[in-house]
Amino acid sequence: MDHAADAHRTDLMTITRFVLNEQSKYPESRGDFTILLSHIVLGCKFVCSAVNKAGLAKLIGLAGETNIQGEEQKKLDVLSNDVFVKALVSSGRTSVLVSEEDEEATFVEPSKRGKYCVVFDPLDGSSNIDCGVSIGTIFGIYTLDHTNEPTTEDVLKPGNEMVAAGYCMYGSSCMLVLSTGTGVHGFTLDPSLGEFILTHPDIKIPKKGNIYSVNEGNAQNWDGPTTKYVEKCKFPKDGSPAKSLRYVGSMVADVHRTLLYGGIFLYPADKKSPNGKLRVLYEVFPMSFLMEQAGGQAFTGQKRALDLVPEKIHERSPIFLGSYDDVEEIKALYAEA
Ligand code: AFP
């Protein structure tokens, strides 16, 4: 009998236990972050269950509304947003919420306020819902650094000021990937226990990868450096093998694969979308935070992504993120352009 393996199987590191362990390193901590995270985890479990039942529950289909990005809202988007907003407000630990689905920020009423601001996309990749392909929730967390009335300025801060970021992927398994600034850790939902269990401690992205991930249908509108980079991926002139192309079209799925296998994910600017497609606060920043914590890089075409200072809550930015060496190559092409 393999006692070591057995001990591992019976000594389950749940996400709550993990965060409580982290918290014990800070004697001044009062458990606010653990409580906030437990509400995020509840939202993720709810959405996971709703996604799994979507076909059965006839949740698939348009809710008859258009969100502020001009995209058709699905029932699951609406449901996920409601669940997360209510879970975050009821945690008593938040003051400002920014959701992809809501045009305006939500300011929590004074009696329920707490010291965190959460930016999130409750259900990213919604065009993949109807065909059962992986989708996810993305979130980033800032602390409120004053006791005055909160404003949107409290979240219009660079990504390097986030205190935590993560995503939950609703795929063949449900996985929550989290960083509180001390590495990146992955937890898989054990459906029989209803608990996220640490399965991927201290994830490190390979320094160089052999996969690139981009919507190549936009190629005719790309700028010079992006075009040259993708050309290099396909027709390398230095004797290295050509990279494989993988593109799901759900940022969570594409970034998750990039984090585990290495390589690069690109959503560049193009002639039609000069700022790219992806939103700074709840797509670019959380994923860039995770990439850097895992040893990779995230670049906008001009600067380190986490150094951007957003002016609007739904601002967009081009993004190139992934393995350190792969992002170095695209940085070099922009530097010489
Ligand atoms: P949807 O939520 O509309 O499916 O958009 C998903 C997304 O914001 C992100 O998850 C993908 O990486 C990206 O858009 C895909 O965009 P393209 O369809 O333009 O490739």
TrEMBL record:
It is found in: Cytoplasm. This is Fructose-1,6-bisphosphatase, cytosolic. Signal peptide: none annotated. Its EC number is 3.1.3.11. Keywords: Carbohydrate metabolism, Cytoplasm, Hydrolase, Magnesium, Metal-binding. Residues 205-334 form the Fructose-1-6-bisphosphatase class 1 C-terminal domain. GO terms for cellular component: cytosol. It comes from Capsella rubella. The keyword Hydrolase applies. GO terms for molecular function: fructose 1,6-bisphosphate 1-phosphatase activity; metal ion binding. It is an enzyme of class 3 (hydrolase). It catalyses: beta-D-fructose 1,6-bisphosphate + H2O = beta-D-fructose 6-phosphate + phosphate. Pfam families: FBPase (PF00316), FBPase_C (PF18913).
